[in-house]
Write a structure and sequence with these properties.
The complex is a heterodimer.
Chain A: H1 7-32, H2 37-50, H3 52-77, H4 85-103, H5 109-138, H6 142-165, H7 202-219, H8 221-231, H9 233-238, H10 243-270, H11 281-291, H12 296-319, H13 327-341, H14 347-358
Helix pairs in contact in A: 1-2, 1-13, 2-3, 2-12, 3-7, 3-10, 3-11, 3-12, 4-5, 4-6, 4-10, 4-11, 5-6, 5-10, 7-8, 7-12, 11-12, 12-13
Chain B: E1 16-21, H1 27-34, E2 46-47, E3 50-51, H2 57-62, E4 65-68, H3 80-85, H4 94-111, H5 127-140, E5 145-149, H6 157-172, E6 176-180, H7 184-190, E7 193-198, E8 201-207, H8 213-221, E9 239-249, E10 255-265, E11 269-273, H9 280-287, E12 295-300, E13 303-304, H10 316-323, E14 325-328, H11 332-336, H12 343-346, H13 364-377, H14 394-407, E15 412-416, H15 424-439, E16 443-448, H16 451-457, E17 460-465, E18 468-474, H17 480-487
Parallel strand pairs in B: 1-6, 1-7, 4-5, 5-6, 11-16, 11-17, 14-15, 15-16
Antiparallel strand pairs in B: 2-3, 7-8, 9-10, 9-12, 12-13, 17-18
Classes of the chains: A mainly alpha, B alpha/beta.
Chain lengths: 359, 493
Amino acid sequence: MNNDLPRWATAFVMPMLNLLSALLVAALVIYMLGEDPAESLGILVHSAILNPEGLSYTLFYASTFIFTGLSVSVAMQAGLFNIGSEGQMYIGGLGLTVAMLAFDQTLPAWLLIPAAMIGAALFGALWGFLPGYLQAKRGSHIVVTTIMFNFIAASLMNFIIVKYLIPPGEQNTASRVFAESGEMPRLSTWFPSLGDTPLNISFILAIAALVIYGVMVWRSSWGFKLRATGLNKHAAHYAGVSISKMIIIVMLISGALAGLGSVNSIMGSTHYLSLNFVGGAGFIGIAIALMGRQHPVGIFLSAVLFGALIQGGFDLSLEKPNIPTETFIFIQGLIILFCGAMENFYAPAISALLKRTKG
Amino acid sequence: MKANADVSFSIAKGSIHGLVGENGAGKSTLMSILYGYYRADGGEILLDGKVQPIRNSQEAINLGIGMVHQHFMLVENFTVLDNIMLGTEGGFRLASHRTEAEAKLRDICERYRLDVDPLAKIEDLSVGAQQRVEILKQIYRSANILILDEPTAVLTAQETASLFEILRLFKDQGKTIILITHKLQEILEITDNVTVMRGGTVVGAVATAGTSKEELANMMVGRPIQSHLPRAPYNPGATVLEVDGLQLADAQQVKLLADIGFNLRAGEIVAIAGVSGNGQSELLEILSGMRLPTSGKLRFLDKDLPFAKRTDADGLPLAFRELGIAHIPEDRLRDGVVKNFSVMQNTILGYQDHLKNRWGLFNFKAIGARCAELLKTFDVRPANPDLRIGLLSGGNQQKVVIAREVLAKPKLMLVGQPTRGVDIGTIESIHTQLLALRDAGVAILLVSVELEEVRALADRILVMCGGRITGELKIEEFDTTRIGLLMGGMHKS
């Protein structure tokens, strides 16, 4: 239906209208909670974007979201709805931890960090490979299997952390703290004005990943085959694409990207693996992929938006006692509702408007 | 855009009226207005001299207008009787109503000499019989005006002939028939008057007796059409493709292809004629590498085609293509193009690996130039490489596919239904292209359900029925009746 609309309308006007609608409903709820929506929005924007420290927190959260958003997006290009980025990132965290526990006493930082990243990517890829293989060779639907693999990942990690990773004598359900050499260098080292925030070079890596994704998907022959697979499997087969191989490869990449999301969360901030450290970042990746329409710029902007909601929402709940911390989850839900489920809500109206103005 | 602009025509009661026009000329829109699917923005419909605002299809039915769609609207596992009663069950007392209905149905069958068993299940009936059920349904609902949309597209020559007999009988009974078709031969054969449409308007209304195929074609296209395309004398070269003992069974062990064997030589067009669904599609799929046969031998340029040890056809089309086998798929929108890709992207589909640099990245400048050249040579309109191909007309989409495959300079060209859903003007240019390819020494295997097309292009004709080759003819032996019998499964005696 929105195929009839010009690009600028589907790429900018519609997402903006969707976002505005979500914010409008959020404003209504904030008003009903007895707070001033305009003032609240001011606080949110100020604490998440306008001050350097807040902005750097926003970008810190966004770094993880870019990876999970890319994970979902690349699978979507092949027509696969990977719901499993959550579990893939979780298992990716395990790979990272295994590398850390094995090498953090011996390897120097410049070897240790790549080793941990490879561990994260490999384990994430493995967790993407299994549903991919089942889809390609057995026809098990990827949505169903990836959802189940999220649960399997959660139980598995529960078991591994409790049974093997808690250091003797500790109560906290987490691994030991990794050596300092395994910390991602913080951007505040070079830009002190950012303040003492966890924003680290993962952000730069995320941007690099966006660029590579953009080039691979739209400018390479592999990306051409990938998108052909997503848009028309029959024609892709006709063009010589091995569909099952493509599904498996793209799920490996998707899982690896999700796995890499754990690098920012663990090596950029906590420095240990803890239970449920993913905290929904994989699911937010789905919203980001939908809202950003799997385009690098869109993914970046959506990731920053969700980062800002977390950062700003947190500050907002501190300043306004009537607004609970959960508000941001609620706003997030509204954005997913309007930008995902009701994506084409305004399409008929816009197309009617365009028709009328054109006469 | 106006799909219909200022259309006026009249149809005499008790006549057969033909409506012809190219795709997109507005025939279907017009009929949908008559049948109440769409409402006209202006103008009026008069029935027996009275203005009738037809607001929905129920009103059309009440006025005695019946429509037989190109795709049948039947419940496959219901009986004929149940299908006909559907929507007119007459409330609670189904059993007694059924007896009444059956009696009425048998009466109609007899009166119109429609050979249909009311208690047979639809899925057991031939396509021709299913169509008779559709017609029966309209008569049962006391339709006096019958609209038939491309009724012969799915019929064999014999079935077409018997359909026309039924239609003539209707006419004799005072009923009015509107026949929509693009087959001019049929118009000449059966109609009394013809209305020709082009670009949403009526460009001609003539009595059939006073017109000719050429005149109608010229009116439809708006320019003279060559009825016989020039071709070099038949002078085939070396054998390009040998097919021997080809078998294909599906997962339920139903035989789709049985013992197919033939040769194809350079510089000849071999056409496979047959009613659609008799194994031609499967044969094309196997020869293009899209599907594996169950058994059999395929030799291409004196080498076995590389599928022997495979368990699936993944990537096989590419391997075949690299050997010099090009393929214009039957189902263009399913296999031939990616609808949401641009025209330019579709011109490299299947050849994407030829146009990348050593980093695997595309050289868009070269691809753009290649595409621009191709759009110009093959006269694709609009010649905009960035347009989504889904927005092009069927004919222009097909031109893009053909251009892409011709550009690859194949040794063997597999062509499936090259002019399905394509208008007359474009058919001419596609046929010219294929003949030029033949004259240049390419071996061409053509699958077509249009006998006209087979006649226009083929050097030799193979007829398929039920997954077997039932006969072979040279073009000089072309005989519609004989081909029709072979298509129906009668082996040559």
